[in-house]
Each structure stands twice: as structure tokens, then as C-alpha cells.
């Protein structure tokens, strides 16, 4: 849909800092992040709300969000947790009518910083932030080595 900003990001005709992409979904940094690393995962096929989304694609979207949350723990963002949130419909405060899963990294004791981020919504070094997430994703693909170098 040419009048949908997330479709334009998927198509590469609107700018965004992408952190992951496959045949059916795309993940990019939120332009007004609540916290550094705040990422949106969107299906490549336009679906405004959950009732238009193929459930298998919805499951794939969540799997990608799950993996991004783990990557945020592993990489330089050093998250301790994450909020995974999907606002379905205007009644639920959805503002962009193309389904998206928010993945927002959290740290222990970040309540004040999170509240401030919620109010200010300022971007944080998108290039460095994206690199921290893609490094975390790459780390998930590497085997864990114990102190003797044995893979687990
Ligand atoms: P919602 O309230 O619909 O769940 O969240 C929409 C999110 O999309 C917001 O967090 C907002 O900052 C983000 N957003 C809106 N327009 C753009 C855009 O053009 N590019 C990016 N990267 N994010 C956007
Ligand atoms: Zn769209």
C-alpha cells in the first residue's frame, strides 16, 4: 500500500534503520524510541490489524520478536529483559495501521529512564544501536563455548 509508511519502509522507498529481514517480515528501529533499541517487527504483506493477519505469519512475527529480545540481551545493549507489545486497533492505541510488534529492551531499575523515554521519545545513535542488535543476533547463531572451548 503506497500510502502506508511501513509498506514504504518494507519496499525501501521510505528510510528506516533495518536490523533484520527475511522473506515475510522486516524489523527496524522505531523512529521515536521509548528506550535505546526499541524495534518494530512488521509483516511485509500489508495487514492493518490482527483480523487481517495470517495467523502463521503472526506466529513468525512473534518468533522474530522473541529472537530480537534475546539478541538485545546478548549484544552490546546488555538488556536484562524486554517488553513485547502489539497494539491491535485504534481502541488499543494503535497509531500506524500496519500491524507491528514492539520489542523494547529493559534493564533492571530502569523505571525512571523508561518513563522519561516514554515522554521524550528521542532517537539514540541509530547506526550504533542497530549494530548492537545485529551483533546480538549473530551471537545467538554462535555455539556457547565452555571454559575448555567445548560447544554446548
Ligand atoms: P503504535 O502506537 O501504532 O503501536 O506504534 C507505532 C510506532 O511506530 C510508534 O512507536 C512510532 O514511533 C513508530 N513510527 C511511526 N512512524 C514511523 C516511521 O516513519 N518510521 C519508524 N521507524 N517508526 C515509526
Ligand atoms: Zn502497510
Automatic annotation (TrEMBL):
Active site feature: 100 (tele-amp-histidine intermediate)
GO biological process, one term: nucleotide metabolic process
PROSITE patterns registered for this protein in UniProt: HIT_1, HIT_2
Top-level taxon: Bacteria
InterPro entries: HINT, Histidine_triad_CS, Histidine_triad_HIT, HIT-like, HIT-like_sf
GO molecular function: catalytic activity
Chain location of the short sequence motif Histidine triad motif per the record: 98-102
Record-annotated HIT domain positions: 5-113
Gene3D superfamilies noted in UniProt: HIT-like (3.30.428.10)
PANTHER family associated with the record: ADENOSINE 5'-MONOPHOSPHORAMIDASE HNT1, HIT FAMILY PROTEIN 1
Official protein name in the record: HIT family protein
Organism whose genome encodes this protein: Nocardia bovistercoris
Taxonomic placement: Bacteria, Bacillati, Actinomycetota, Actinomycetes, Mycobacteriales
Amino acid at each position: 500500500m503506497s500510502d502506508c509508511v511501513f509498506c514504504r519502509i518494507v519496499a525501501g522507498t521510505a528510510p528506516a534503520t533495518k536490523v533484520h529481514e527475511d522473506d515475510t517480515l522486516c524489523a527496524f528501529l522505531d523512529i521515536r524510541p521509548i528506550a535505546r533499541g526499541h524495534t518494530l517487527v512488521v509483516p511485509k504483506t500489508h495487514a492493518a490489524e490482527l483480523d487481517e493477519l495470517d495467523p502463521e505469519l503472526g506466529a513468525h512475527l512473534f518468533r522474530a520478536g522473541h529472537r530480537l529480545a534475546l539478541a538485545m540481551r546478548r549484544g552490546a545493549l546488555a538488556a536484562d529483559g524486554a517488553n513485547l507489545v502489539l497494539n491491535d486497533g485504534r481502541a488499543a492505541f494503535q497509531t500506524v495501521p500496519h500491524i507491528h510488534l514492539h520489542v523494547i529492551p529493559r534493564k533492571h531499575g530502569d523505571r525512571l529512564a523508561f518513563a522519561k523515554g516514554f515522554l521524550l521519545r528521542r532517537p539514540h545513535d541509530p547506526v550504533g544501536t542497530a549494530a548492537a542488535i545485529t551483533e546480538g543476533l549473530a551471537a545467538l547463531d554462535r555455539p556457547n563455548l565452555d571454559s575448555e572451548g567445548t560447544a554446548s
